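Dear Dr. K.,

Following up on our conversation at the group meeting, I've run the structure prediction for Alpha/beta hydrolase from Micromonospora globbae. I'm pasting the input sequence below exactly as I used it, so you can double-check it against your construct before we proceed with anything downstream. Let me know if the numbering doesn't match what you have in your notebook.
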Amino acid sequence: MSADPRAVLTRPAPEPDHTVAYGDHPDHVADLREPAVSEPGGDGPARPLVVVVHGGFWRSEYDRRHTGPMAAALAALGYPVAQVEYRRTGQPGGGWPNTLTDVLAGVTALPRLAASAMPGRVPDAPPILLGHSAGGHLALYVAATAPAAVGGVLALAPVADLGEAYRRDLDSGAVAALLGGGPDEVPDRYAAADPQALVPIRPRTVVVHGERDRQVPVAMSRGFVAAARAAGSDMTLVELQECEHFGLIDPESAAWPAVVDALRSLHEDHRRIDAASRSR
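The predicted structure tokens came back this morning:
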């Protein structure tokens, strides 16, 4: 592993197996990776589709390509994977509300699109959303807004409290750029977009956060998970003592096994729920 935790952002990864469009804009696309293995038995694919929602503080400088190493590693573990793209701040159409509604549209469409592109490899069940940083915020937003479309959420160092992120001035005004101002200026947008204001979140959720995270302080996840649980959400917080922000998306990091374990726990919940629904 590189001594620079940001090295994962530019590390080469295998090309995706397919790229599909969920809308008309050039950024309304997702890269698909076929699962390398599948579990024997059963009447369909054992592992759910994982939709990866990339971070980068919603800014145009960061796109889905930096999640390539993680997506390839997940596919190697047997998960069908979709890396969804969306319009971001700093480009035409990015920011409020399109950044949020793009991801919502992508998540809603991707099970069908992935099943068509990868026949027999994608189960007929809602996907698990895996979002990192700003992508964690977007995954939580989708889960709160369209819970029936989501089979579970793995939020890695999510920006889960937009009001607090604005007050802390994370990434030099990233939240204001997304929503067009602060909570006092555009309160309706914060009410509609902030996971802290959208609890309870119905889909099962695991939040993983490193205690050494300097980009998104772990205190934000502690406060969010406490509020979500108090409101009735089925949510777990996993804190990693020796982890910073980028190790959570790096398959070569010491944090990666904890990320995989969290995904597997959601996968098992997903399978139990799917089995129960099939038996009705």
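Two things stood out to me. Confidence is low (pLDDT under 50) at residues 40-44. The two ends are 48 Å apart (CA to CA).

Best regards,
J.T.
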